[in-house]
Amino acid sequence: MSERLKDQHCYPYLKYNHPYIERVFKEQYGIILSRREIDDINLLFTLSKTRHNKEDGAIATSTALLKKLNKNPSVTRKTWKEYGLVDDTGYWHCKGSCRPGFLTEYWKYLHKEVYRLKKQDGYTKEGIFVKRGKRYSKINELPIEDEREGEVDVQALHNHLKYLKYQLHIVAASEKNKVRQSIYDCEKMISYAEDNDGKVKQQHVRNPHGRLFDINALQTIKKDVRNVAYNGYYDYDFKNCHFTIIHNLFPDLETIAEVCKDPDQWKEDMAQQLGMTDKEGRKAIKKCLQSLLYGASIKSKKGVLEHELGDKKQKFIEINKNLINDIKQIRERVEKKGPFRYHGKDFYTLCTLLQTIEGYMLDSVKDDAGAVALFFDGFIAPKNDADRLEQMVYDRTGIKVQITEQKL
Q1: 290 and 161 in one domain?
Q2: Which residue segment(s) compose the domain that 166 sits in?
């Protein structure tokens, strides 16, 4: 059954726990679950990591949500209750057909056992690389190409974890998911470090376009956890990486050059024009810039621009009309008039082109810098000469980029 499930063409998060859920029930309780029951239980794993986990130990799912996920709401809830995973007795009142309940102690035990089996097998969330809409390779099928190991401050991580758990009870509801993710990442780092004498190892495979991916998804650890873990090291970052790459490839575009000249000042000025002067406002503008580069529609009423800017979206579009037109021209050059050729390779999408060059830039300095941990547009390492690293990137890739240095 495990192999059959692995071969399914569906989203990774809906299948990577399947074989382990099946094993726990079969080996420990002699229960043979049906495919539908395994799907329903795995869905609970997914929902428990999202906004539907309202408070510690509580879960709330609406009938509309379950139907949207192609589930029969009553049957799914019955499965959760029959196997003792959710207790919906005495649930509080919710609007509509939302049925809150409490995740039981058995659910916590099941979650722990599944994680233990996955860790024992050296198997983590299964990533699928996609080329023009078709699956063609999995992370666990590719050879390990690069390994990095660095000592982390385990005691500082434990202290940070206590702080995050305290924060979970006092932050606004809109911020709870961010805190939960930090808690999860912090526990993950502590687990890896304690199993390896206080060190965390990254193991990278390379996708066919040249980008490195860590098989344990340690590249996606939230920044607050990362900074605590690697206390004493230096964080090196390719500043405004993707726009800088675009500027190097298309130097004649004035709007792109303006953004790259001083990215922080550009975002600050834009935030002031939009009346979004707080830190979150500048983050929103950064997300909007990135989404435009990756093809976000300015007409969509449910897109990133609408979500981040709200009623300021139209003003942002009017101010940046020329920038948006230039980004559109770049996309047409690469995707419609392409392929775009770089270092002997043909590229059909702008996103792939940018990520591949970013990978080349990281390759050009990671070994010389003595990096102990790699991230997509930067790395953690002992003290280095940033100017020397910038020159190395230029010599090996032809990309002029500013590398920022921050002591952790």
Answers
A1: no
A2: 144-230
